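cache lookup: miss for this entity combination. No prior model stored, computing from scratch. Input as submitted by user K.M.:
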Amino acid sequence: MARNAHPHAMAPSKPGRTRTAPPQLPDRFPFGGRYLAYTLFDLTGILYLLLGFLVLCTVWSLGSGEAVWNGALERHRNILYIGFHAIALVGLIFVGIRFFGFFPKAQPPRVGPVKPPPKGVILVGLYALWIGVTVCLSIVLAGGVF
Amino acid sequence: MKHPLLKLEPLIWLLFGQGILLGTVLLTPWVLVVGLAIPLGIVPADALSYERATLLASHIVGRLVLLGLIVLPLWKGAHHMRHTFIDFGGAERDAWVAPLLYLLATVGSVLAVVAVIRI
Amino acid sequence: MSDGQQKKTFVITRFDPDRDDAPRKQAYEIPVHPDWKVLDALNFIKDEIDATLSHRWSCRMAVCGSCGMMVDGEPRLTCKEALSQYGDTVDVAPLANFPVVRDLVIEADGFMEKLTHVKPWIIRAKELAVEEGPMRQSPAELEEFKQFSMCINCMLCYSACPVVANEPEFIGPAAIALGHRYSLDSRDEGAADRNEIFRGEGTVFSCSFANECSEVCPKHVDPAAAVNQAKLNAVIDWATSLVLPRGGDK
């Protein structure tokens, strides 16, 4: 038997004339079938929160002088940091592919008088942005230019 | 707590959405280079020597990119963790879980502004 | 029914509010016709084997939206589901995320209440007089909302949505899609009203874009698109209201 959903899920404001059985969650929720991708997508929230704070610490150390900055770079060589960033990269690619796939249909047919471009163009534009920024910023960070 | 949070919901959602979109776009090269390529020795460490890193980061574009790299993922993270709590039966606790997560993102965002100013 | 005909076992969730503490499963092995839909099998069981089985159905052509059930764990219109695509054992349960009245019949009143929240009708500041003629609409204007008007209120989307399952206030995919459908209608002037509603508790911002509603929608309405388009409209409306507050209503 499936697990119960919230006891008031889809309940009317006034109870009906007869006793009802409590609402059940869909059998496959949260880790089965299509729900797995959804649940993992939500769980990447933890990765992003950690990444945000990790970048914050790294940027903070840059403002704290050369020794602290070099310490931060040294810490990044720790196997735990490398492992985390490897997982984070997989998470980022997963989030990008899932979200960019949904993004075009989430655009209204018009905003006031403005019509967004066709869905295919939006999708191609998103991937172009992602790949373009990744290539350009990687080159800058890796010392290729500037 | 629910009422003020409700008023801010559009702003939170906007930050969350940009956290997924721009956050992912910006974090990918950061994780690739700073998180993996430099630590693994694929890219020489002096690419981000103190002098060069300061030079890049103190430019206005550099500061804005770093701000986006910190703030947007924090809001994406906080909002998605809120959804996860609700999905695992935490709707009754949302009244304090949501403010706590958004407070965390707010504190991080304020610190991010300070961090990019003090470079 | 002759011997040698294919048989399938239906494991059906039963619940009698007068007798059962909780829902239970009951299995029926029946001969099936190759062309049957899942609904035909349920009707066979009710007509030939167990008259106490309760389930809703009406049109048998995926229009009335009343025969939605969980078939092998997925919300489906049973009149639309060919039995041949299922195995020898088929599990049939009432729609998930709804209170159960009896057997496969769910309590739909909560859904009906949610529907009315979004003002799903054309709102006009001033009604046109009859002599002014009909309100004309171009095919391009119709195309902007037509997809969202195809909803048959079958509630499959509610049954698949993880937010509906866990957040009772959430007004849900079909209701939001219907509200959005009217806001997109060139004859409607109620978008601002609905944007206010959509910024309230348990509406568009509660959606976590699982996209499950769109996956299970039998009419390809794509409610997830509607809900997320409505989010953007609500954000634009909110940002505009900061710059240009509407008088009196805040």
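stored under new cache key. The radius of gyration of chain B is 17 Å.
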